[in-house]
Amino acid sequence: MAIREIRTVGDPVLRTPCEPVTAIDARARSLVEDLLETVDQEGRAGLAANQIGVSLRAFSWNIDDEVGYVLNPTIVELSDDYQDGDEGCLSVPGLWYPTKRAWYARVVGTDLDGHEVSVEGTELMARCLQHEVDHLDGMLYLDRLERSVRKKAMRAMREQL
């Protein structure tokens, strides 16, 4: 197990849709261990595999003292109610912007035993599930910002470089 380095904006792995995990082997088990250890740090809510440079559909979360993971997640349900709070990202360090997300979300995927798992939640957990699946699809939360806010965010990112 290892705490892995977080890839940041500009790294092409963040913009590449991830491939499904097709085999539950030593590689998949090692990936899950690294995801769990890396997300289990202060201030971290979620972590997608591509954020640590692995282009496979897997993510971990650390919400309300619960740390977990899911392989091959698919969003299967979103509420019609929305939340519009500030969102940040480990791959976009130091920047937080209002991002509209569904208030409730549910994903279905598998665990390391090949069993189907369902992960659901409201508010922060729902935001995390949507955010991490976006990562696996090659999207950043910046892509969901309103145009004027996105322009401001891109300017702030350039200033950080």
UniProtKB/TrEMBL annotation:
Pfam families: Pep_deformylase. GO terms for biological process: translation. The keyword Protein biosynthesis applies. Fe cation binds at residues 89, 131, 135. Its EC number is 3.5.1.88. Keywords: Hydrolase, Iron, Metal-binding, Protein biosynthesis. Binds 1 Fe(2+) ion. Its cofactor is Fe(2+). The active site is at 132. Gene3D superfamilies: Peptide deformylase. It catalyses: N-terminal N-formyl-L-methionyl-[peptide] + H2O = N-terminal L-methionyl-[peptide] + formate. GO terms for molecular function: metal ion binding; peptide deformylase activity. Removes the formyl group from the N-terminal Met of newly synthesized proteins. Requires at least a dipeptide for an efficient rate of reaction. N-terminal L-methionine is a prerequisite for activity but the enzyme has broad specificity at other positions. NCBIfam families: pept_deformyl, PRK00150.1-3. Belongs to the polypeptide deformylase family. This is Peptide deformylase. It comes from Pengzhenrongella sicca.
